[in-house]
Specification:
- 40% of the residues lie in helices and 12% in strands.
- The protein has 282 residues and is an alpha/beta fold.
- The strands form two sheets. A seven-stranded parallel beta sheet has the order 1-2-5-6-7-8-9. Strands 3-4 form a two-stranded antiparallel ribbon.
- Keywords: NADP, Oxidoreductase.
């Protein structure tokens, strides 16, 4: 929590205004303190996430398979997250993933679909209470998004789908980017440096020499320069040097030739063997 508070203050002092946390990052209190100390609350965009109802990989570990119990648990955790942050509202709440075990490679079956729909009802209720300004999902594949949007109780579709996306995955992995664009869902890339693999990637480094940029800067620029969306991205650092590089990603551009070259890269793989989601595949 102390590290999170310091990181938020450091980032905000440099002009970075988006803060991202989650129920199972175990730093909600520190993030909230940092946001409140950083100045005008309205100038900082806070994203928080709650966990799926089937969540065996890390605390909070649980296997809630009854949709009504899943709804109640999700609503409880939304309020708990807001209380832990110490904020009056969150700008964006995301479901951290579909209710599937980590590494599941199938689609969204009937049981999982019902749980996802139950969680989304809780999210829509929270939105109606004006305690969050936007709602979305993370690690959702096409079948899980389709299931959620097809529920008669869904009045508000997911506004954001946060997924893994980095150089090496191509411009439209599993057709998910174009699907999200068609459904008016903003794509937000997590792990845009493939868990650090892009930092030492030879192709990104060689491209960066042309622009006097690091491999990491090339990797970030590749994401934000994609024509689909355009996408957003989240980064993680408490280094002033790297935070400044992150902030500078919008101040330059890759050539079409270099974008095409990077679009065809098949490495690095990053997490999940290069798949956008840890919870489903199609």
């Amino acid at each position: 929590n102390d590290t999170a508070e310091d990181a938020v203050l450091k980032a905000s002092s440099l002009g970075l205004t988006h803060v991202h946390t989650a129920y199972d990052y175990y730093n909600l209190q520190g993030v909230g303190r940092g946001v409140l100390k950083a100045g005008d609350r309205g100038e900082i965009f806070v994203t928080a996430m709650t966990s799926p109802c089937i969540h065996p990989a890390a605390p909070p570990q649980r296997n809630v398979t009854d949709p009504e119990a899943c709804y109640n648990l999700t609503k409880k955790e939304l309020y708990e997250a807001l209380e832990s942050l110490g904020l009056e509202y969150v700008d964006l709440f995301l479901l951290h993933g579909p209710s599937e075990p980590f590494g599941y490679e199938g689609g969204c079956d009937e049981v999982v679909c019902a749980l996802n729909q139950a969680q989304w009802r809780a999210y829509q209720d929270f939105l109606r209470s004006n305690l969050t300004r936007a709602i979305g999902v993370s690690n959702y594949c096409q079948s899980c998004l389709s299931c959620m949007m097809s529920d008669p109780s869904t009045v508000v579709n997911p506004m954001v789908n946060q997924i893994q996306w980095h150089v090496g995955m191509g411009p439209d992995p599993e057709g998910l980017m174009s699907y999200c664009e068609e459904k008016h869902v903003v794509v937000q890339a997590y792990s845009p440096l493939a868990g650090g693999e892009v930092v030492s990637d030879k192709l990104c480094a060689s491209v960066g020499l042309k622009y006097n940029k690091t491999a990491a800067e090339v990797g970030l620029r590749w994401v934000v320069q994609q024509p689909i969306g355009p996408p957003a991205l989240v980064v993680k650092s408490d280094s002033v040097k790297y935070l400044e590089q992150d902030l500078g990603v919008f101040d330059w551009a890759l050539s079409k030739t270099d974008m095409d070259t990077l679009n065809h890269a098949t490495e690095p793989k990053g997490q999940q063997d290069g798949h956008p989601s840890w919870g489903c595949r199609r």
